[in-house]
Specification:
The complex is a heterotrimer. Chain A is an alpha/beta fold. Chain A is built from six helices and six strands. In chain B, helix 1 (40-54) crosses helix 7. By secondary structure, chain C is α/β, with parallel strands linked by helices. Chain C has two domains: 5-195, Rossmann fold, CATH 3.40.50.970; 275-394, Rossmann fold, CATH 3.40.50.920. In chain C, the strands form three sheets. In chain C, strands 2, 3, 4, 5, 6, 7, 8 and 14 form an eight-stranded mixed beta sheet that branches. A six-stranded mixed beta sheet of chain C has the order 11-13-12-15-16-17, sandwiched between helices. Chain C has a two-stranded antiparallel sheet with strand order 1-9. In chain C, helix 1 packs across helix 2 (42-51), helix 3 packs parallel to helix 4 and helix 10 packs across helix 13 (373-383). Chain C is globular and about 65 Å long. Classes of the chains: A alpha/beta, B alpha/beta, C alpha/beta. Chains in contact: A-C, B-C. At the B-C interface, strand 2, helix 3, helix 5 and helix 10 of B face strand 2, helix 3, helix 4 and strand 10 of C.
């Protein structure tokens, strides 16, 4: 069972990211997935988060307790949720938006300039999809095929191509990073 | 010289003579519960006459009432009839109308039911121009429960919960109805039977939210508590103090204690009903994907 | 009868409980929705507002919850399947018309996405504290049916079940979900229309002038007609006879209200539904419903790993309560453990049925979140000793955390 926390600010597509992962896992990877989001005043403009649990068995407890993966796309979201990340967890950040504290335990940090990539592709609104590509490559929680099936069903039809491009950008960047990691830099890839 | 004797007319045999409105009334429930000289019966007669004159398929006419003296009307009409909860007949009728738009739905209830506890439903149904005809019997008081103050009680009038005389400003029902969007608004007293009947006929035929206010005598409570005399005295008051002013600005229709009452047809205008607006908007937006709503499920 | 394909969105979806509720209703043939938005049930109304125009159904956002349920009852009497949805404060406002719907024997469905209370409470966070209000909330005597799903899939399935039960027994049926289930997004499989069983309305088929709206069939349920179909019926919230006419007498009250109660009580065996697992030979049976039933499963797994013999009884239909089964189990087990997100509601029913023959331990939670499975586990361990038999509903102090 993998617990994932996505954190950022309202408007970044954080919730949508959770839905895409959950849908990919439960409909196209044939796993069980439960997605929850934070509701309330904090969801409007301020810190915003989505949580997804992906499992081979039915998910019983519906909320994340000790996330295995945390994705941070804002400093505020990072500060709020980083403490709950497990000591063995993966921490994925948008490197231009989050300045991480020194790492604790065996947490591995992976950084991607998701928003910058999105801007280069023409629209910063798809930064979350770049991040999803990156997440898919780094975490291996969902398959790339499942993600590519889920995305077109959850974005406006005229933006499907752009979104898939954004996804690929993040995914390739992630694979590259992992390749470097394997070529002798294991364990240090993310330590900055 | 003594007055000439009036020839005794042959009296009809009551048992054989059917009530002229038998087809419209639940005769097995008569006698009704209303007090002698109450104006609700007159209003029911006007409504029944209007229905007869219209010659509609009465299977397709529904009546919805709330709670109170007038709330009992639904129970006496031989129509599909709903006696609902206090204040909610307009909301209930909204469901009936939208459930089957082929039905003509009439809300028949009192001032307390429709304007106090049911005020929110009244203003919103008017705003939406829900296709309902509302007959609002206004006797200035909560009569069924023994004469409590109402949102229609004219200032200084007494009621059991206003033992020192009412000091609150009452609602002017035609003005309220107009302001909220009603397309047809009239007011008559129980004395104006013919005009009332005509107004009810017009209201029934008007698509949208139509309101007919009927000022009725309540001798037992309103009359007694305020020492206004008998039912006959109240009718005489209407006779002497009603001023017919069709088209009068509804702002001028406040009713003051023991002062003349302006009656007439005040509003008769066109505006799309809820369903017309619904069908128009959704057809525009959804095109062929939308089948205009209208028939039965 | 099979479902009308028009409302059935066949396929696999990733939906939250609220959206699944709306889809379940449309699949069941619901074609009227009147409601007032309130967190956390608003998404149900939103889904209806978007979907209704596409399936020849009508959506109206009413001015308040009083009007919402009143309109739903009105629409139901025109032959439409109708529903509304609400939460906490809105549920309180709907009590008046739950009574009217019970009195007029109107089939309809009301979903309550429970949140923390009392009053405005916790609008965005979960609770299960309206369970007794669901049963007893409107004044006077009546019986109700309520179901409680624990996932979006079940919310879809149970909403259909709710419509079917409401038509079968001419009674309002409540879908008691909660914020957690309503806002949780999971896979929901919507089957093809011809695999969805639908209970048709029980229509009166005799001569129009002989129709008696409240003359029951053998199973105590009277057949119905639609407004506008020519029977010129009358219905009233007052105590009434077969004709629907008010009769202010103790005799009429006795006949009518006893039947309103008995049509559910005497048919309870057909209505009651629960899931049971490993209750044979169990020392402890954990009874739960809604979201808590999922969380409890985790605690049960942990307890079994410790060697405790734990069974599970999960309520699907919460009202009527499965009295008979709980009474049977009470003679066999040491203890019942009941976690619920309130300070003791359904557990009172368990205690009533246990009759002092088994311990009844409550694991309460004030709302705002679901239980920590550790808390349930802790109570299971204590209850396995069965020392609280005959002490009424007991609570074990929470385990201290390091």
């Amino acid at each position: 069972m993998i617990e994932i926390r996505f954190a950022g600010y309202g408007g970044q597509g954080i919730i949508r990211s959770g839905i895409i992962i959950g849908k990919a896992a439960s409909l196209y990877d044939d796993k069980f997935a439960t997605m929850n989001q934070s509701f309330g005043p904090e969801a409007r403009g301020g810190a915003c988060s989505a949580q997804v649990i992906v499992s081979d068995d039915r998910v019983l407890y519906p909320y994340v307790t000790v996330p295995n993966v945390m994705v941070a796309m804002s400093q505020e979201g990072y500060s709020k949720y980083e403490p709950e990340l497990g000591d063995e967890g993966l921490l994925l950040i948008d490197e231009d938006l989050v300045r991480p504290k020194p790492l604790r335990g065996n947490i591995k940090l992976y950084s991607v300039p998701a928003t910058r990539f999105a801007e280069e592709l023409g629209n910063r609104i798809i930064a979350n999809v770049v991040m999803l590509g990156f997440f898919t490559a780094i975490s291996e929680v969902v398959t790339v095929e499942a993600m590519k099936k889920a995305i077109p069903t959850l974005v406006p039809s005229r933006f499907v191509e752009l979104n898939l491009k954004a996804f690929d950008k993040g995914y390739e960047y992630g694979l590259e990073l992992r390749g470097k990691e394997k070529r002798g830099k294991a364990g240090t890839a993310g330590r900055c | 010289m003594s007055a000439p004797k009036v020839a005794e007319r042959p009296r009809p045999k009551m048992k054989e003579e059917p009530h002229p409105m038998e087809s419209l009334l639940r005769m097995e429930r008569i006698p009704h519960i209303w007090c002698p000289t109450c104006g609700i019966g007159t209003t029911v007669t006007a409504f029944a006459t209007a229905l007869e004159k219209l010659d509609w398929d009465l299977d397709k006419v529904c009546i919805v009432s709330g709670i109170g003296c007038t709330g009992r009307v639904a129970g006496y009409m031989r129509l599909d009839s709903f006696h609902t909860t206090h204040g909610r007949p307009i909301a209930f009728a909204t469901g009936v109308k939208l459930g089957n738009p082929e039905l003509k739905v009439v809300v028949f209830s009192g001032d307390g039911d429709l304007i106090a506890i049911g005020g929110n439903h009244f203003i919103h149904a008017a705003r939406r121009n829900m296709d309902l005809t509302v007959i609002c019997v206004n006797n200035f008081i909560y009569a069924m429960t023994g004469g409590q103050v109402a949102p229609t009680t004219p200032p200084t009038g007494y009621a059991t919960t206003s033992p020192y005389g009412n000091f609150e400003k009452p609602f002017n029902i035609p003005h309220l109805a107009e302001s909220c969007g009603a397309v047809y608004v009239a007011r008559w007293t129980a004395l104006h039977v013919r005009r009332l009947t005509n107004s009810i006929m017009e209201a029934l035929q008007k698509p949208g939210f139509s309101v007919v206010e009927v000022i009725t005598p309540c001798a037992n409570y309103w009359g007694r508590i305020n020492r206004l005399g008998t039912g006959l005295d109240l009718m005489r008051f209407y006779h002497e103090n009603s001023i017919i002013k069709h088209g009068e600005d509804t702002r001028n229709l406040d009713i003051e204690f023991k002062k003349p009452i302006v009656v007439g047809k005040f509003i008769d205008r066109e505006r799309p009903t809820f369903l017309q607006a619904y069908n128009q908007r959704l057809s525009e937006i959804l095109g062929d994907k939308f089948k205009p709503y209208g028939g039965k499920a | 009868m099979k479902a009308d394909p028009k409302g059935v969105l066949t396929g696999s979806h990733f939906l939250d409980g609220d959206h699944a509720c709306a889809e379940g209703a449309l699949a069941a043939g619901c074609r009227f929705f009147g409601g007032y938005p309130i967190t956390p049930s608003t998404e149900v109304a939103e889904r209806f507002s978007q979907r209704c125009p596409l399936v020849e159904a009508i959506f109206i956002q009413m001015e308040d919850e009083l009007g919402s349920l009143a309109a739903v009852i009105g629409a139901a009497w025109t032959g439409r399947k109708a529903m509304t949805v609400t939460s906490g404060p809105g549920f309180s406002l709907m009590m008046e018309h739950i009574g009217l719907a019970a009195m007029l024997e109107t089939p309809l469905v009301l979903a309550n996405v429970q949140r923390g209370g009392p009053s405005t409470g916790l609008p965005t966070l979960t609770g299960q504290a309206d369970m007794m209000q669901a049963r007893w909330g409107s004044h006077g005597d009546y019986e109700i049916i309520a179901v409680s799903p624990n996932s979006p899939q079940e919310t879809f399935d149970f909403t259909i079940k709710a419509f079917n039960l409401s038509e079968r027994y001419r009674v309002p049926v409540l879908v008691m979900l909660d914020e957690c289930v309503g806002h949780m997004t999971e896979k929901v499989v919507i089957p093809p229309a011809d695999e969805i069983e639908i209970e048709p309305r029980r229509y009166y088929k005799g001569p129009k002038d002989k129709y008696l709206p409240f003359k029951p069939d053998k199973d105590l349920v009277p057949p119905m007609v639609d407004a506008g179909s020519g029977t010129r019926f009358h219905v009233t919230g007052l105590t009434h006879d077969y004709r629907g006419y008010p009769v202010m007498s103790a005799d009429c009250q006795e006949e009518l209200v006893r039947r309103l109660v008995n049509k559910i009580r005497k048919n309870a065996d057909h209505i009651v539904e629960y899931e049971e697992e490993q209750t044979d030979g169990a020392d402890v049976v954990v009874i739960s419903y809604g979201i808590t039933s999922r969380v409890a499963l985790r605690a049960v797994d942990l307890a079994r790993q410790e060697g405790i013999k734990v069974g599970i009884l999960r309520l699907i239909v919460v009202w009527p309560f499965p009295e008979k089964r709980i009474r049977e189990l009470a003679g066999k087990v040491k203890a019942f453990v009941m976690p619920e997100i309130n300070y003791g509601q359904m557990v009172l029913e368990v205690d009533r049925c246990a009759c002092g023959r088994a311990e009844v331990a409550l694991v309460p939670h004030g709302g705002g979140w679901v239980h920590d499975p550790e808390d349930i586990l802790h109570t299971i361990r204590q209850a396995a000793k069965g020392k609280g038999v005959g002490k009424g509903v007991i609570e074990y102090p929470r385990k201290k955390r390091g």
